[in-house]
Design goal:
73% of the residues lie in helices and 1% in strands. The protein is an all-alpha fold. A hairpin with a 2-residue loop joins strand 1 and strand 2. The longest helix has 33 residues.
Length: 433
């Protein structure tokens, strides 16, 4: 049933426009739910730092640093699929489903991990698998929506990334201390369910390519230019280079995205630490895990708001505005949080604003990238942009985590602010086509 969603005619029955729209948004809801569950593995160790530190016999800073291994694995994975053209060569639902199921096993294996080195390898492999989850979801979603409304649709999808990244903190809040096994099994099950859900939900839509691999997914009557069969690795490599050379708007989008990524995961990594710093300056304390969940999850609301505004203002303008708000938050919020002068409510409020702004631009970059290349190149273009962005985030996460041992968080976020500052400049400067 799900494979037929979004089609205009099936078996001689004409489907009404309302039914078409309902089916389309039902499909979108399925991918949002699946991405939410699949990306819950990303920050799983960060939500159980204390328990994992004891289990592997290391300090909390070292365990928190394994986030960089996820980023590194994701970077290498997305670079490989970009250069190999894997996302545009293989069946999208098989890639997503298989990777999510493997990640389910990797999370379950953490329960038996007693070495920091093994944990690092585990998280690196999880990052590689996520490279076959997130870009694939973006590609599939982009194939079902025209460029004008694509930013709004992708906003929901990227918002699911925020909810998925926040989910481990939310789960941890409701579990008793020491229930690490139940926590890991819940996250593992979520990833496995996501894989099964996407595997049976169909593939590309009418705005994607139909090269004989995504069978039955293109709208009837669509004029598809790509030829049947697999693309060679060499051709994919030339395609990546040609995209970078020929599309100035695509290069501009990549630079803006890298500025955004310099901040995003570093902010998410330090959200619990910022709350701990605030607690240290206050008489009463608030729960770091619960409020980290709320703050990171607020990125979903930022994506929704940015997606709605993009229909009126355009993706480029929305992305630039979000970057500027995020830049201001980097410079001001850590100082206010650490000052001890603000109430819990005000601190949570300004952190939620930051959580919304830091992710509101992300789906707009995906929309800009997918609109600047041919439909047959969307998978490669998104994967290449994502790879370079996550390479940037890997450098930022590693560097800032090391600096955290010697420098206060307000000073660290001055360096983090360089990302949204440069991202805004690159995105808004004039370019020659």
């Amino acid at each position: 049933m799900l494979i037929a969603l979004g089609a205009s005619k099936r078996g001689g029955f004409v489907v009404s426009e309302n039914t078409k729209a309902s089916a389309l948004y039902l499909r979108l809801a399925i991918y949002v739910a699946a991405l939410f569950m699949a990306t819950s593995v990303w920050f799983a160790p960060n939500a159980i730092l204390g328990e994992l530190s004891t289990q592997v016999g290391s300090d909390a800073s070292s365990v928190r640093g394994v986030t960089a291994m996820v980023q590194l694995g994701f970077t290498i994975g997305t670079m490989f699929v970009a250069l190999s053209g894997l996302l545009d060569r293989l069946n999208s639902r098989v890639l997503f489903g298989g990777a999510a199921l493997i990640n389910s096993g990797l999370v379950a294996a953490i329960e038996m991990t007693s070495s920091l080195t093994v944990l690092r390898v585990n998280r690196f492999c999880a990052g590689v698998m996520l490279a076959c989850v997130y870009p694939v979801a973006i590609k599939i979603c982009a194939s079902w929506f025209p460029p004008k409304t694509r930013g709004r649709a992708l906003a929901l999808l990227v918002g699911a990334l925020a909810l998925g990244s926040a989910a481990p903190h939310g789960i941890r809040t409701w579990l008793e201390s020491g229930e690490i096994r139940l926590f890991l099994r819940m996250v593992s099950s979520a990833s496995g369910l996501a894989g099964v859900l996407v595997f049976f939900s169909g593939g590309l839509g009418p705005y994607g390519q139909n090269n004989g691999i995504e069978k039955g997914q293109a709208e009837e009557g669509l004029n598809v230019h790509s030829k049947p069969g697999l693309t060679s690795v060499g051709a994919a490599q030339r395609s990546s280079a040609q995209i970078l050379r020929s599309a100035a708007s695509y290069r501009q989008t990549i630079w803006g995205f890298c500025g955004h990524m310099w901040e995003l995961f570093t902010f998410w990594m330090f959200v619990p630490s910022l709350i701990v710093v605030h607690n240290a300056m206050s008489v009463e304390t608030i729960d770091p895990s619960f409020w980290a969940f709320v703050i990171i999850a607020s990125g979903f609301l930022g994506c929704l708001l940015g997606g709605a505004l993009s229909v009126r203002l355009g993706s480029k303008q929305v992305a630039a505005f979000a970057l500027m708000i995020s830049l201001l938050c980097c410079l001001v919020n850590p100082v206010l949080v650490a000052s001890g002068f603000l109430s819990h409510g005000v601190v949570v409020g300004i952190m939620i604003l930051w959580g919304m702004a830091v992710l509101a631009d992300s789906p707009q970059f995906s929309s800009l990238a997918s609109a600047s290349v041919r439909p047959s190149e969307v998978g490669t273009a998104v994967a290449l942009m994502t790879s370079l962005g996550y390479l940037t985030s890997t450098l930022s996460v590693s560097l800032m985590n090391r600096l955290a041992n010697d420098i206060s968080l307000p000073v660290i976020f001055i360096f983090v602010a360089l990302g949204p500052a440069l991202g805004t400049w690159f995105l808004m400067k004039d370019h020659k086509t």
